Amino acid sequence: MKEMNLEQIEKGVRLILEGIGEDPNREGLLDTPKRVAKMYAEMFHGLNIDPREYFNTVFHEETEELVLVKDIPFYSMCEHHLVPFFGHVHVAYIPRNGKITGLSKLARAVEAVAKRPQLQERITRLVADSIMEKLDPLGVMVVVEAEHMCMTMRGVKKPGSKTVTTVARGCFDTDAEKRKEVLSLIK
Questions:
Q1: What angle do CA 9, 10, 12 make, to 5 degrees?
Q2: CA 179 to CA 169: how far, in whole Å?
Q3: pLDDT of 1
Q4: Could you tell me the residue ranges of all domains in the chain?
């Protein structure tokens, strides 16, 4: 992955300020390009992280029962408009042969995937596929609920509207009862 170039971001922000008719040399805007560059470095730090790396450490516990971490908050940037979207991710999996991961690893994987220019549908898929690939569970289900500023601040202007995406793999894809169990626990 290419290294983030803060100087180039600063130049871009100056161009945007000039493009909207502002004076980037005005007192209140003097440090704005630098602040935005630092903010982007933080907001897009997931570009250089493979979410699967969080599942390299596993534990063994005699269980093949549901594990659900719900209401994991996230913030991301819509790759179409570069405005935020945010909400919660719910991650469920059923371990195979007792192969489990630390609960914080699920949240870290969500964070790594969200911290890049992104689509909600892709976040949902990448988190689920990373877990399936590295943990080989009986099944995984990921549900993402988010509000998109591109629908709130511009365009259709519908604040409060939520988008929900789901991905079901393994037993959650084939067993409607297991899927319903997860959805009822999320509510």
A1: 65
A2: 10
A3: 63
A4: 6-44, 57-186
Fold of 57-186: GTP Cyclohydrolase I, domain 2 (3.30.1130)
State which amino acid sits at residue 131: I
The pLDDT tens digits of the residues spanning 67-79 come to 999 999 999 999 9
- Yes or no: domain 6-44 corresponds to CATH 3.40.50.150: no
Is the Cβ–Cβ distance between 162 and 87 less than 8 Å? yes
- For residues 181 and 169, what is the distance between their CA atoms, to the nearest angstrom? 15
CA distances from 108 to 12, 53, 103 (A): 30, 10, 9
**Distance between CA atoms of 168 and 128, rounded to whole angstroms?**
8
Residues annotated as catalytic are 78-81, 120, 148, 150
For CA atoms 150, 156, 157, 160, the dihedral sign is: negative
pLDDT digit string, tens, across residues 12-63: 999 999 999 999 999 999 999 999 999 999 999 999 999 999 999 999 999 9
Residues annotated within a binding site for Zn(2+):
78, 81, 150
pTM for the full predicted model: 0.94
